[in-house]
Amino acid sequence: MGSKHDIADVLVIGAGASGGAFTWSLTQAGVKVVCLEQGGWVPLNAFPVSEPQAQLHWQTDFHPNPNFRGLPEDYPVNEDDTPIAPYMYNAVGGSTIHWCSHFPRFHPSDFRLKSLDGVADDWPMDYFELEPYYDQNDRAHGVSGLQGDTAYPPKPARPTPPLPIGPGGEMLARAFNKLGWHWWSSDNAVASAQYDGRQADVGEYLRSPSSSDIIFWPGALKQGARLITHARVREILVDETGRATGAAYYDHNGNLQAQYAKVVVLACNGIGTSRLLLNSKSALFPDGLANSSGQVGRNLMHHPCGYVLGLFEEDMGPDSGPRGSSMLSQEFYETDVRRGFVRGYDMQISNVGGAPLQLALGGLVGQQVQWGDGHHQDFAERFQHQMGIVIMTEDLPEEHNRVSLDPSLTDGDGIPAPKIDYTVSDNTWAILDHGIARATEVLEAAGAKRVISSRLRRNAGWHLLGTARMGTDPARSVVDRWGRAHDVPNLFIIDGSIFTTGACINPTTTIQALALRTADYLKGEGSSAIA
Amino acid sequence: MTTTNNILSAEQSALLGAVLNCVVPAQGEMPAAGDIGIGGFIEAFAAERTARRRLVLEGLVQIELAAAERGGDFSSLSSDAQTDTLRSVESSAPEFFQFLVTQTYRGYYTHETVTNALSYRAPNRQDYDPLPFDESLLEPVRERGQIWVPTNN
Ligand SMILES: Cc1cc2nc3c(=O)[nH]c(=O)nc-3n(C[C@H](O)[C@H](O)[C@H](O)COP(=O)(O)OP(=O)(O)OC[C@H]3O[C@@H](n4cnc5c(N)ncnc54)[C@H](O)[C@@H]3O)c2cc1C
Description:
heterodimer; A: alpha/beta; FAD/NAD(P)-binding domain; 7-stranded mixed sheet; 13 helices; 16 strands; globular; B: mainly alpha; 56% helix; elongated; binds flavin-adenine dinucleotide
C-alpha cells in the first residue's frame, strides 16, 4: 500500500479528455497532481493507415467497443439490455485516442431546457460562463473552422482554416442553400495547418493526433504532474468524517496500492465514474459514494444516431484528409413544437468510412455490400460515390436509463463491471424519423440517385453522459455547479457524467471546458480545498 | 493446448475456396475471393478460437448438405445452383453465413491485389491536395443571419 505521507494536493483518476485538460491547467499553478490511469500510452504511429491491413485493427485490437477489443486494460460492459453499444478507449488520452475530433459547442439554449421547453432541468450555470473555457480549449487544440456561424453567439477567429468539404460537400452546400437551411463549416479539434509545433493532420493514422495525450499530457508532465499508468482504481477511500482521502488501485503487477490526496477528482467517463462510485461502498456510504440522492448511474444519455447515405453518379474524389466532420447543419437544432417533439438534432457530414473495407462492411449505415453476382456493382456504386449524413439527436435524461453494477461480470482485477439498461424514448424516435426524412430530402436535392438509411445505429455509443448529474438540489443531483459532490466536500467529478442535459452534438469540448473551469475554481475561489 | 492455423482438410479448403469465389466472384480487374487465398485468411482467424472453428466446420457441412440436395458437390454445381445453395445456407445458418461474408470482406478488401485493383491510396501527406473551402457558398446563410436562440439568462 502507498504511504500516508505521500499526500498529493489532487488525485485525478482517468487520463482521458477531461483528466488531461484538468491536470494541464492545474499544474500551471504548481499544484501537485497525481493521476492514476488504467491504460498505457499509445504511440501516435501505432496504426498507420498506409499499411494494407490497417483497417482490420478497427475490427479487432483497435475496435472502439471494449467488449470486442478485450485488451487487459479494458473492463467489460454488459450491453445486453441496450440498443446502443458503449464505445470508449482506455489509455492515456482516453476515448479521444479514438475520436473523430468534431468539436461543436453547446448552444446557450442547451443550458436552459426547463425554462425554454419545460423538460428536464436547467443547468446551474450558463453558456456565457463556459465561453472563456471553450475559447481556451480551442486555442489549445488549434481548432479548424470558420468564424461567423449564425447558429452560435460570436466566437473568436478559429485558430486554423476550415477543413475542406470536397466536391460532395459543395453539392450538399448548394442543396442546403436551395432548401434555405442552415449549414456551416464544422469546428474540429484537428489543426488544419501547422500549429504549436504540430503538423497539420492529414489522416495518416487510425488513432487521433488531437487526443489529450498529445494536446495536454506533455505540458502537464513538464509542469510536474505525476502520471501512473496501468493503475486501475478499485475504490475511493474515505475517512470517518466522510471526506475522500485517496484511492485504492491495482498497479501494473496486480498489487493493491493506495494513493492519498487532499482532493480527489474523477475523470473516468460517463460509465467508468459511476461504476467507481457504486463500487466505493462503506458504512457511511452503503449505496455507493456520493449517492444519497440515488442518482449515481442514472440519467445515462447518449446521442442516438440515425444515418443516411446518398449514392451519386458523380465522383466524390479519393478517401483523403483527416477524419472529422467537414460541415454541419443546425437547421433543426432548437425546439419547434409543430414538429411533434422537443429539442432537435444536428446533421453532420463526416469524412469517415471511405476505406474499401469499411465501405464493404456498410460503414455507418451498417448495410453491407451484397455478396454474389451483384457484389462488384454494389461496391462500385458506393466507392467514391457516396455522401453520408449523421443525424445526432438530443437524448433527454430519464432515470431508468442507467449504469449499475453487474452481479457477476468483473474485469481482470476482479472489480465488478458495469451493466447498461437503456431504451430510446418516443421523443428521440420522433426526432430520428424527422432527421432521416430531412437528410433524405437534402441528399436528393443534391442529386443523389439512391438513398439508404439506418434509423438507429447500434455502434454509436460514443457519448456517455449524465450519470452523476449537476444540479442545485442534493436530493436530485450528484454534484454542484463546480462538479463538487454534494455529499463529499473534497470529491469532484469533471467528465461527461456531470451533464444535466446532453444537447444534440458531440460533447467533448463541453466536457473539457467544464474541466478547465473546475481547475480554475480550485486555483482560485475553491483553493482552500488544497491549501 | 497447441493450436495450428490449419483446421481444414484439403477437401474442405477446396470447398471453402469455391464458396468464396461465389461470395465475391471475379469481374473485370477484380479477382475472385477464393482465388487470392482468402480461404487461408478465414481459416487462420477461425483457428484462434474454438467457437469460431466449430462455426466454420459446421457451416461447411451445411453447405455440403445443401449442395447434395441440389445434385452433387458444390464445385460441380452450376453457378446458379451454387448461389441457390448459399442462399439456403444464409437462411438456415445465418450466424455462420454472416461470419463468412464479413470475414471474406475483411480479407478481400485488405488484400493488396484488391486495393491495387481499386487504385486505392490511404490518406497520406504527399497526395493531400484538397479543394480550398469556398466561402462564397455560405453567402445565403450569412444573409439570413442569427438563428441561435437567446436565453436572457
Ligand atoms: C470512436 C469514437 C469517436 C468519437 N468522436 C467524437 C467526436 O468527434 N467529438 C466529440 O466531441 N467526442 C467524440 N467522442 C467522444 C469522446 O471521446 C469522449 O466524449 C471523451 O473522450 C470523454 O472524455 P472523458 O474524460 O469523460 O472520458 P475518457 O476520455 O473516456 O477518459 C476516461 C479515462 O478514465 C480511465 N479509467 C476509467 N476507469 C478507471 C479506473 N477505475 N481506474 C483508472 N483509470 C480509469 C480510462 O482508462 C480512460 O482513459 C468519440 C468517442 C469514440 C469512442
